[in-house]
Amino acid sequence: MTKSAHFIPFKVSYSTGNYAKLYLREMGIDTRVKLSTTFHLQTDRQAERPIQTLEDMLRACVINFKDNWDDDLSLIEFTYNNNYPSIIGMTPFVALYARRCRSHIGCFEVGEISLIGPELVHEAMEKVWLIRKGVMRFGKKGKLSLRYVGSYHILRHSSKVAYELDLPNDLASVHPAFHVSL
């Protein structure tokens, strides 16, 4: 089978009948409903691993997104259904629909610019560039980027614990005043 999963948020107080109604409303398809939870073996045990994976992914989202984890449940579902399990040799989405899943993240491809308009793509790419620029550190990104940039001429001693430095133009976005510990 495809091993795809659909994650639907619900209230803990729901009965089994309410779960089934919610599933049919959200999915809108004629299938048999086998509801299960982790470590309850009413189904054929195939749901146990996806539920454990969902729990792990939700833990990560709760840590990162705090209170609005349910808003990101669709992203978790997208991530889960687009991973590459070795048991079927393709993503669950490809196995189920026989095509790759199109995400909104990939809308910057050349062929799609005409669909959504070049202005919108340009605006979005500018925002991505600004975020990326904020992540970049001295022209390199990541943990292994340089922490020490170089020695610079001291312009003035602004306080007991701060100095103002003469920075080059490529560091124009950095404030020129530094604490003595740096």
Automatic annotation (TrEMBL):
One of its GO terms (molecular function) is nucleic acid binding. Pfam families: SH3_Tf2-1. Residues 126-181 form the Tf2-1-like SH3-like domain. It comes from the Eukaryota. Gene3D superfamilies: Ribonuclease H-like superfamily/Ribonuclease H (3.30.420.10). Transmembrane segments: none annotated. This is Tf2-1-like SH3-like domain-containing protein. The lineage of its organism: Eukaryota, Viridiplantae, Streptophyta, Embryophyta, Tracheophyta.
